[in-house]
Amino acid sequence: MRLVQLYVPRGERETVLATLDAAGVEYGLLDETSDGAYEAVASIPVPTGAVDSLLARIRDAGLHDDTRIVVLGVEASVGGADADADRDDGGQLARDELRARAIDLAPAFSTFAVLLVLSSVIATAGLLTDSAATIIGAMVVAPLMGPALTASVGVVVDDDELASRGVTLQLVGLVLTVVTAALLGYLLRGTVLLPPGLDIVAIPQVAERVTPSLLSLFLALGSGAAAVVSLTRNVGSVLVGVAIAVALVPPAATAGLGIAWGDPMVVLTAGTLVLVNVLAINLSALVLLWMLGYRPHSVDGLDRTVRRLVARSAILFVSIGLLSVVLIGMTVGTYQVASVTHDVDTELESMNDAAAFDAYEFHEVDVSYAVHDVYTGEPASVTVLAERPPGNVDTTGLADRVRDRLESATGREVDVVVELVDTQRSS
């Protein structure tokens, strides 16, 4: 339920009352006794989903554009024909409410910058310590949901200043995250706080961000849509904000760590993931807001907004498509790596039952094969542990025979190292 308070300009009482009567709404009218620009205040209880239509009728009646209208949330409505009309109706916020909430969600720059730097520090520490809980905790602090929604809301309601502020905050926020992570990584590298010779790519939480797949794109699209639903339906947005932050802050922090460690591949893959995610969040939010019916007030504003919406959506879509080439490549490469590892394990299992290797028991120790090896044509390096009984077992050409079997199974060139171990088992 909403309470719409309409400040009636002097000389327009009859027009306002006729409009409200035609709309069939209940209202109360208080005379304004001051010498200001208004002669009365009309208080109108309205279901949430009906606010926009009421405001449209009031404006269509010819009221001045500077007429003050205040929309208030109602905790409870007792008595009256529409007392329960708004209960669980799932109504959307009115256009003006949407704009006001979007403005509130984008904090002052100083607050935004401080919270984002703190979130980046926590997220970077979580990445370096491989702590998923720490990373998620950092996402609660990150104030990125507001700017993402502010940019899209500004476009659909034809508010250039609001849209520009949202875009600026997003860009500055991502740069802040990358710089903060790079500085923290540079300061921590080589200290007692991190193991000597630490390979950041070997950390699972970091590896997850440098081997992105197309599923990451669906995460970002879903996060943007969920943010719009939480905003327009006026429901809790904390968890949705976490989802958006997860899509942006950790990969941006990973790119910063790549700079600190001087690893261009980490910067490229994590940076691509960040860009794809931020573009996808904005695209899904923009399209869904338009589909939900949010429009500018004026016809001129509508025409201008349609042109901008089409242009911006096209730019976002094309940019996502181009950047997704990297995601597709990573997805295919990751699949190939997993496939080779699986085929090696399967073939070694079958070799244990083969008569040609009845004297041995094979175990896969390590398969060294990365995504970049798939595209550079480098062979997979496989280390195999071969148990054999003590005695004079002929091992001539064993590594070559194992290699031939594994190359046949994987369809790829394989370098094999066989580690021989004399084993006795009790009977």
Automatic annotation (TrEMBL):
Keywords: Membrane, Transmembrane, Transmembrane helix. The chain crosses the membrane at residues 105-128, 134-157, 169-188, 214-231, 238-261, 267-293, 314-335. Signal peptide: none annotated. Pfam families: DUF389. It comes from the Archaea. The keyword Mitochondrion does not apply. The keyword Chloroplast does not apply. This is TIGR00341 family protein.
